[in-house]
Amino acid sequence: MLRGRGNRGRGRGRGRGRTAKATPATPERTGPSVREQRRNRAAEDRKGLLGGKGQQKRSRFGMDDDEKPKKEKVVHEAPANVKELLKWSKEEGSGCVVDSTAFATLFPRYLEPYLRNNWENVCLTLKPHGIVAELNASEGSMTVRTTRNVWDPYMIVKARDMIKLLSRSVPLGQAAKVLDDNVAYDIIKIGGIVSNKEVFLKRRNRLIGPDGKTLKALELLTNCYVLVQGNTVTCMGTHIGCQSVREVVLDTMNNIHPIYGIKRLLVRRELANNPDLANEDWSKFLPQYKKKANPASAPKRTKKQRKIAERKKSKEENYSPFPPQNHFPQRKEDQELATGEAQFTAEKFDHRKWREQKKQREAKQSTNDDSLDAAGAADSDSDGETRKRKRDEDDDGIEDDIRETLTKKHHERVDRRNWSVKTGQRYKST
């Protein structure tokens, strides 16, 4: 008899037909088990960390707080010649370029004569840094490319910035300053801020100022070179100065006069000279300007709207939570009682005269009723005659309508051969 896999080793048949293997006897444990040893160690560690009553608290490593080694704060002072250490020397950077890198930018057509005349000076400016410059007049582009003689790997980015400035009409002598590591630049786009061209020109001229005085004041306060050309404003100088120029330019194009930004820069310069205010917030010292609404540009209100506004304003001015004294008007009797006239009117009242007036009123009313009844009877007679006349006219009209319909049906029964199909008219009888 075969047994299935599921019945193997189950129930009473377990071990049937097999010899049981003898298991070796386990030795008796004399000491604590491994688990008990771990528990004991953990309890001892907790006692050492927490300590008992009257004992000094011990650290995690079994040492007192006084015995722990204290770390001394090391203050690293910056060396005096930081700028010299950060400079990239020609000996250190030789052979740093593995592959050629190139950048290109376009320039407007009106700058072609200036660039042609000064392109040799551009090449001479970039040659000591191992960078080659190319001018393509047919495409209207300038390209800078690295060579194997490059010893400063970041100089190609500076050369790209220089040709960008040249394309924005910056003179070569000023654009070459961007090759210095301490000089930053920013090109601010102002063309898309204002859609109306006339408004754009007015705000751009406001930024320049009369005879360029506003732009000159901005340059002196920020220590930057600022050039307004077309739809862009180019500035060169420190990073903070370029940021301040960008704020003033964008505020001017958003209809905020540049004089407010210049005043703010003046206050900042005075605060920077005071060492006591170096770690304080300067916002409470800076002037805050609120934009005033122009009454001329406000929409005109109609006469009805003005009346409603005036009424509302007068209500707000004369508002009182308490009702007025004469909120409920007095009756005539109450006024007479208050003034004392009611007593005199009662004494002067004549009952005889009142009865005679009442009789006269009743007689007049009766005569009026008789006249109205007579007029109504006459009107009823005349109405009867008119109704009879109208009914006779209606009967005559009905007879005419019946006669007309009968004649129309008689004509419809006429032979159709007498009618012309093309003209829709009856043939003439011969």
Number of strands: 6
**What spatial form do the alpha-carbon principal axes imply?**
elongated
Annotation field: number of helices: 13
Radius of gyration: 57 Å
Amount of helix: 40-55%
Q: Can you summarize the main beta sheet?
A: 3 strands, antiparallel
Mean pLDDT: 76
What structural class do you assign from the helix and strand content? mainly alpha
> Which stretches are low in confidence, meaning pLDDT under 50 for 5 or more residues running?
1-15, 52-62
How would you describe this structure to a colleague?
A hairpin with a 4-residue loop joins strand 2 (131-136) and strand 3 (141-146). The model is unreliable at 1-15 and 52-62 (pLDDT under 50). The radius of gyration is 57 Å and the shape is elongated. Helix 7 (213-222) packs antiparallel against helix 8 (239-253) and helix 7 runs parallel beside helix 9 (258-272). It has helices spanning 34-50, 82-86, 112-126, 155-167, 172-175, 197-208, 213-222, 239-253, 258-272, 303-317, 332-339, 341-348, 351-412; strands spanning 102-106, 131-136, 141-146, 184-189, 225-229, 232-237. Helix content is 46%, strand content 8%. The protein is mostly helical and 430 residues long. The strands form two sheets. It has a three-stranded antiparallel sheet, covered by helices on one side. A three-stranded antiparallel sheet has the order 4-6-5.
